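Hi! If you just cloned this repository, the fastest way to understand the data is to look at a raw example. We've pasted two of them here, unedited. The first protein comes first, obviously.
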Amino acid sequence: MSISMLDAEKRIINILESYGIIDPGKVLPHSRFNDLGMDELDVIDFIERVEREFGIVISDVDVNEFTTSDQVASYVSKRSDAR
């Protein structure tokens, strides 16, 4: 059973907001990571948190394609093994 896009978006936005360095008012599904002030290390940490949250492993190839949180949510929602 897969996760809905809406559920994935909400959980991913919660992860982003938990950073403390990101203004919660700026976090929207289409927010670009660099617009949120995230550098490469922040994005790597974020992806690791997403993997733990949803119980999945995201390949480096896929990670390099992500520039916004809604791209990550779409990816997660299509994974049948996400929880």
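Ok, and the second one:
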Amino acid sequence: MSSPPAPATPPPPPPPAASLSAVTENPRTIARHARIGMTLFAVYVAVYAGFVLLAAFDFERMRTNVGGVNLAVVYGFGLIVAAFVL
């Protein structure tokens, strides 16, 4: 009887990309990305707050027809689109 073949050794993992680690380790780049992210977040919160305030305090305006549907539906779809765009 022959012995079973030795298991194959897995290939070594690829080295990390130098450009990616340089970007993620640079504190100035990290700070810039954080600032951009917080700015976009603040813009979205302001737009969402406008929706909530209109719905709470000026409901009649939200019932206004815009293109066959009320403003609340248009504004709501606009929020969804804004979330993807931002």
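That's it. A detail worth noticing about the second one: The helical segments are 18-25, 27-57, 59-62, 71-85.
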